[in-house]
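Data deposition worksheet. Section B asks for the primary sequence of the deposited chain exactly as it was used as input, without tags or linkers unless they were present during the calculation. Section C holds the resulting structure in token form. Section D is free text for depositor observations; keep each observation to a single sentence. Incomplete worksheets are returned to the depositor.
Section A, Depositor: J.P.
Section B:
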Amino acid sequence: MHAATARLTGGMSPAALAGAYLDWALHLAAAPGKQMRLAEKALKKSARFAGYAANCAANAGQPGGLCIEPLAQDKRFSDPSWQRWPYNLIHQAFLLNQQWWFNATTGVRGVSEKHENQVQFTARQILDVFSPSNSPLTNPEVLERTAKEGGMNLLRGMQNMIEDMQRGLSGERPPGLENFVPGRDVAITPGKVVYRNRLIELIQYAPTTDTVRPEPVLIVPAWIMKYYILDLSPENSMVRWLTGQGYTVFMVSWTNPGPEDRDLGMDDYRTLGVMAALDAISEIVPGQRVHATGYCLGGTMLSIAAAAMARDGDDRLASVSFFAAQADFKEAGELTLFIDESQLAFLENMMWEQGYLDTTQMAGAFQMLRSNDLVWSRIIRDYLMGERQELNDLMSWNADATRMPYRMHSEYLRRLFLDNDLAEGRFKVDGRPIALTDIRAPIFSVGTVKDHVAPWRSAYKIHLLTDTEVTFVLTGGGHNAGIVSEPGHPRRSYQVLTRAQDDRYVDPDAWLAAAEKHEGSWWLEWARWLDARSGAPVPPPPMGNAQAGYRVLGDAPGTYVMQR
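Section C:
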């Protein structure tokens, strides 16, 4: 019954939402002072709007200013047509109403912070549905396009909507993805698959320089998406760029789990993933320590593996790099809003039925975080304007998601998001707790300014969790675009500051004020950091090691990346 209900609600627990709403509503009902302030705000906003409307009437629809400015990230009303009557009145009334609801859902004494954030987030989602930009009758940009094209934009939009519905019902992929096929258009850096188990393929990339640094680089990507986010087109491939800097690069390519993989847990991802890859690299490049790198969830798993290795005296890591990765989930952004016992029990029932968390269910959760950018703007563009945005390599990768096994995802959400065991010293590996303070390898950590998945202040907590040298970089862009920031990328900059092992703690705001700012790509900073911790160049190692059982199994990008 819960699984069937979850399909109808998109995985959201009605009990969790009801609990948050009741907490807010009951405390608001018992707060006459807050009610009076809200009534006062409503009267003031009404008077302000009336004055604005009168000003418009007296100045032929042009008041000469706005009574409320949109938030900096709100681009819905940036077109000049929204400043004409009556659309200026329509969108200003909406923004005033939106601001009043923010006041109503926040600052109610007695409401828990989590419930307040849930109610405020839900109210914002509901208000966004009724934004005047989403209706063809109140959106001047749509009306102008309709008049100019004689309604052909709406006809194209209807065709786009029917096409999307047909593709959704048949399970077809979005249009345009056929132009970005792994191994043909993306993920084309030359390499070989040198190891395979039920969970990963390990790719070793061919050298592009006469000599390489003796320490290889292992990249552990997130298993929620395909690995080739770091090997997109040749001009923005981190893998290709890194081999060009004289490094031997290994990449983990995760399988796309199905119902038969429902019982794969987090420890399987550690042993069959990170540790199996390190064992293979130790045979292919014997006697050399490894520069281990983890991206997003891959970085979290790498931190667990590194801490367990440090505890057990395994010193194979020369350095550890984290890209937009978290180890403390106390302030992990809006993704944590609906992570509680009620929600997890509901989600587990849904995953239990099918054995995994489906890609569409994950995509829906991420789209909610930026519904204006990822949902409503697309509806306006595709269905009201009748346009189709041409896909690029990053957008095509974003549509190529993978599933997550029932057990692993349940453990991940409970042990990390809900209980925060890793940061608080309760996370166990092989029956014994691990601590990130045991890690002695130097750390290079990257956060991105607009990250809605791993907020940079959350990633910055690596300073509090470790006792080793930490170099932290803050770069522009979001969770994906900020990491795929190749040299020559326009309008890119970053800040960087290193904390020595025995330095005192610097809080994020003080770090932001003190960190030196550089124009360009942070990749160059990372390369300099790796170079300083690597040995003199040597001849490249062989591809695989057949004698040790790591023979070449095929060409990159391998077979797991092709799984749908």
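Section D:
Residues 191-358+403-562 form a domain with the Rossmann fold fold (CATH 3.40.50.1820).
The mean pLDDT is 91.
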